[in-house]
Amino acid sequence: MSLAEFALIERIRARSKGRDDIVLGIGDDAALLQPLAGHWLAVTADTLNSGVHFPAETRPADIGWKTLAVNLSDLAAMGATPAWGTLALSLPSAEAEWIDAFADGFFALADAHDWRLIGGDTTRGPLSLSVTAFGQVPHGQALRRDGAQAGDDVWVSGTLGDAAGALQLWKRGELDVTRITPDPTIEFLRQRLLRPTPRIALGLALRGSASAAVDVSDGLLADLGHIAESSDVAVRVDVTQIPLSVPLRRALGDDGALRCALHGGDDYELCFTAPRSLRTTLGSLSRGVSPPLTLIGAVSTGTGVHCEGYSGPRGYEHFS
Amino acid sequence: MSLAEFALIERIRARSKGRDDIVLGIGDDAALLQPLAGHWLAVTADTLNSGVHFPAETRPADIGWKTLAVNLSDLAAMGATPAWGTLALSLPSAEAEWIDAFADGFFALADAHDWRLIGGDTTRGPLSLSVTAFGQVPHGQALRRDGAQAGDDVWVSGTLGDAAGALQLWKRGELDVTRITPDPTIEFLRQRLLRPTPRIALGLALRGSASAAVDVSDGLLADLGHIAESSDVAVRVDVTQIPLSVPLRRALGDDGALRCALHGGDDYELCFTAPRSLRTTLGSLSRGVSPPLTLIGAVSTGTGVHCEGYSGPRGYEHFS
Known about the structure:
The structure is a homodimer. Helices cover 34% and strands 25% of the residues of chain A. The first copy, chain A, is an alpha+beta fold. Chain A has 2 domains: 5-138, CATH 3.30.1330.10; 153-307, Alpha-Beta Complex (Phosphoribosyl-aminoimidazole Synthetase, Chain A, domain 2), CATH 3.90.650. Chain A has a 6-stranded mixed beta sheet. At the A-B interface, strand 2, strand 3, helix 2, strand 4 and strand 5 of A face strand 2, strand 3, helix 2, strand 4 and strand 5 of B.
């Protein structure tokens, strides 16, 4: 069954729920929203293209989830509460089945965070998905990249490198992105690639505590480089402390796992800096809202990201 | 000269100006904005794809202008003041010259309306441009589609059909979108296609006066259909009153011009309804902020859009 653009929009609109602060939703020239008093609006935009940001054969429900996840992750990294957003969808053909499956993944994550789709556009073209997501954060409490101070600790949530590891296995033909596998090692990595969890609750818990934060989307060293540059500080990473999952080490060995963790993107964990004085309280802050936090380094005066105890390929040296 | 994604973003970022209500602009995980108290946020999203929404050979400065114009036009139709927005840019290759020319057109219009680019994404792919634009409108003063009342007048700004006429001439090989022509008839139509003017000032002037409004993007009858459906009314259009430009009539004849005006999109004039009691004051309201307004019809009880005095092709009858 093929759908005209209008029917396609209707099909997506039918899945969009209301919210008290939505004065007017999809269907007019623009949506009307009532922002919270005393808050800043946080706005981020990310595009995923088929074959570039995900394997072309990825199932539509997984594409839907990930399209929104990468955007909510940016809101998490700002300490913002997700609110609303738009979706620009370019599709080679308008298939009802594809749209419904895409919406299953997209709205499963949207609904979990009370995030509402309030506008967008569908066009005919190669598969491409652009979301602009809005969140809200109380005045002065946003987690920016430019607040890291010499003496701060460097923390990361969860484990790193899993998504990049899954992509390696996929490239080798050892992982099928289109179906569940009974091998728990492979399945763990597959889920980490296809269904990343934006660390929204952790971002909220870190308001007023973290001095700087980013989400790990480009790779740990690259993303820490953004903090170092924006904050005008040096960051030292103790690579022996980088949290690696058992499945990743099992699949790629210790060296391969570490390489994925340092350079692979797409994990969407939060990496942040915080004063040393908060070292003991961060555990209780994050309990129940986040996977374990790991202390992986320290901030000092200077510039750049420095990896101690790592003799990786020379290509990485521009980070040190 | 080819640019990496980062350099490309930098090149665009360098053109983005600040504004007092931008707490944090491009460069963090999200931008931070301070919305106006007592206002709603108006949000719209539109995508333009090369070869679908504009001829593939269109010059980058014209693409830049139009990409933003179609979005600002939606804000105009809501009576919203333009504020900020994001741009998702998909490009086959990153050429510095192309980007600079695109930015020339895009920011010429942005700067004219104090609209600021505060985020976005660039990816490699077929040329596609998605903007999400935000505006602000005082509580209760937005121009919606659902407020038309039986007895209201129907008005339109400027002239209609010019963009569709230009497209017809282009399809016949009689108009070159890539260069200025000394023929004033052709050049007028070419400008109307490539450089539409969002009627922002008119939208602001109509706050509190218009009962419903849309921008003419899909074609007059289709867009009036949106008002009729949303407001649950009938709209009668007197086709002898439709404002047609001299160049359009000269290029396509009276019948061809009228057909473009009724069914052609892309003019981005405002079409609105207003109480009859405002008939004399609308002229002074709009003076200096808009091309002339023309009274083209009336709202009554019932459904649908009805064209009197028009015996066009049967294909149009689903509107009546």
